[in-house]
Design brief:
The chain is mainly α. It is 74% helix and 0% strand. Helix 1 packs antiparallel against helix 2. The two termini are 23 Å apart.
Length: 61
């Protein structure tokens, strides 16, 4: 399925910041709890879902 909509720059920057924070807190550790990974992925999913809803609302107008 081709992507026809894009995320705004602010959302992309926020996603990158979340990833950077996650990497910064885990890069020096050998083991990472699955709950920490799940939390990071859920944060990213929430941002993307919010963006999807905003894109759908904008295209409906």
């Amino acid at each position: 399925m081709p992507v026809t909509e894009t995320l705004d720059t602010a959302t992309i920057d926020e996603i990158k910041a979340i990833i950077d924070r996650g990497l910064g807190t885990t890069k020096s550790r050998e083991l990472i709890a699955s709950s920490e990974v799940a939390d990071l992925l859920l944060d990213l999913r929430l941002l993307l879902a919010t963006s999807d809803a905003a894109i759908e609302a904008a295209s409906a107008n």
